[in-house]
Amino acid sequence: MYGPLAFSANVRATFDVSRPIGQRVDPMRFLIDGRPLDLARSYRVAGLGYTLIGADGYAALASFTDPYRNGRDHEEFIAYLREKVTVGPSGQDRVTLVR
């Protein structure tokens, strides 16, 4: 089963689902602002609390450090919807699957 995460507009990622879990992402094909992921660097990731504790199958995210709580998930989502005039799906070009 494949349940993709949503990525910001400046992120492009390629996943090889034929490879074993833990080896599906090549850092050179995970681009942030057009540059490959730097394994020596730390990144801040935003997400729902449920996802970040690994409760929905993304165990790798559960090893986060230095958490920052901006607000409750549902309250932040409601504020986002109120701020936007129109809400639509994100681009279909952010994630590429290799099978």
From TrEMBL:
Residue ranges annotated for the 5'-Nucleotidase C-terminal domain, each copy included: 7-62
Listed InterPro entries: 5'-Nucleotdase_C (IPR008334), 5'-Nucleotdase_C_sf (IPR036907)
Coiled-coil region(s): none
Pfam families: 5_nucleotid_C
Protein name, per record: 5'-Nucleotidase C-terminal domain-containing protein
Species this chain originates from: Actinoallomurus vinaceus
